[in-house]
Amino acid sequence: MRCFIGFELVDTCLERLRQRIEPFCGFLRKELGWQVRLVPPANWHMTCLFFQDLTEAERAEVWLEVQRNVSSGAWSRLVFPWSGLALWPTPNRPNLICLEAPPYPEAASWPLAGKLGIPPFAKADMKNFAEFRPHITLVRFRGVAVRRYGKEWQQASRDIPLVPPSAIRFDRVSLFLSDVRPERPVYTREYTAILR
Fold first, then answer.
1. pLDDT confidence band for 14 (50 / 70 / 90)
2. What is the pLDDT at residue 182?
3. Could you tell me which residues come within 8 angstroms of residue 149 by beta carbon, excluding any fewer than 6 positions away?
4. CB 167, CB 2: distance < 8 Å
5. What is the DSSP string of the chain?
6. Does residue 59 or residue 90 have the better pLDDT?
7. Is the pLDDT of residue 143 over 80?
8. Cα angle vertex 83, ends 175, 70, to 5°?
9. Burial level of 39, CB count in 10 A (0-12/13-18/19+)?
10. Bridge partners, residue 191, by sequence
11. Is the distance from CB of 58 to CB of 123 less than 8 angstroms?
12. 15 exposed, middle or buried (CB, 10 Å; 0-12, 13-18, 19+)?
């Protein structure tokens, strides 16, 4: 089954972020006529590593490695230089709006990275991990982008909420099952650990 390892926001950070993003999503729909929807805040996370298809036994093996990374303190006090909200993957043909940070080459030093050539870790999306760009998906576009959003985004710059880097903190890491459905993906936590 499709699955991924994701870092989860501290509950208070999640709520403060929701207070900024929910009204902004409404502004995009009502004032600009954008066909967008808010990703449920309970699904906001930062993906660490994505797997196209793992069996239950393989997921259990992956989770043991995640626990080793947690125990070693590899993910303690995860802090990123968040640069703000952005249209992804490109301004003129976006699929989503996310909070983004610059590429983070330090991910290559996480113990997990040393396992990527070994089964079942070899089934991971190694390209995106190698080019690790922290981001949190907050809003999704409905259907295919049919207009050049980049210019409108620039014109609305004063209405784009600011999110200070200090407002984003993580306290959990989970292994999520990802059920991709036509209307929206459904994520189910299979394992969760508290970051030390």
1. very high
2. 67
3. 34, 87, 91, 92, 93, 94
4. no
5. --EEEEEEE-HHHHHHHHHHHHHHHHHHHHTT---EEEPPGGG-EEEEEEES---HHHHHHHHHHHHHHHHHTTTTT------EEEEES-SSS-SEEEEE----GGGGGSGGGGGTTSTTGGGB-HHHHHT---EEEEEEESSS--S-HHHHHHHTGGGSPP--GGG--EEEEEEEEEE--SS--EEEEEEEEE--
6. 59
7. no
8. 30
9. buried
10. 175
11. yes
12. exposed
Length of the chain: 196
Share of the chain above pLDDT 90, in %: 88
> What does the alpha-carbon distance between residue 132 and residue 102 come to, in Å, rounded to a whole number?
9
Structure-block tokens of residue 7? 């870092």
Residues 6+ apart with CB under 8 A from 174: 5, 6, 8, 45, 189, 190, 191, 192, 193
* Domains of the chain by start residue, with CATH: 3-194 (3.90.1140.10)
Would you give the end-to-end CA distance of the chain in angstroms? 28
pLDDT value of residue 86: 97
Residue 144: alpha-carbon gap to chain centroid: 21
- pLDDT averaged over every residue in the chain: 94
Model-level pTM greater than 0.90? yes
Place of tokens 């991910």: 107
- Gyration radius from the chain CA atoms: 17
